[in-house]
Write a structure and sequence with these properties.
single chain, 115 residues, mainly beta, 8-stranded mixed β-sheet, 1 helix, DUF3221 domain-containing protein, signal
Length: 115
Amino acid sequence: MKQITFMVLLTFFLLTGCQSSPSADWAYSFIVYHGDNYIVSDNMIPDEDLGKQINTVEVYSDQEVNVNPNKIFSNHFPAGSKIFTIKGKDDKTLAVQTKDGNFEVNYANKYGSKD
């Protein structure tokens, strides 16, 4: 009887221990700003090239979730990260400021489009 109980418990722990929480397999890091999808680039922006602060990231998640496209969402930057224009660049290129520096983000497409 002890062996059966042990085997049942062992099977239970193995099955539940092998499950992981659902998380997204994002193809890239991004922010959604005003319904537009901006891809995070490797380019770092010096502080002196930052323009006007235009907003902050409102929602962070590395989980696949349905986020209101009117919210400023990122799968990379934490909520509260500041979003800036970049001097000399158009509105298709922005900067996101974190404790690790200022990251350039570039317009890719409308959020949710298949492009």
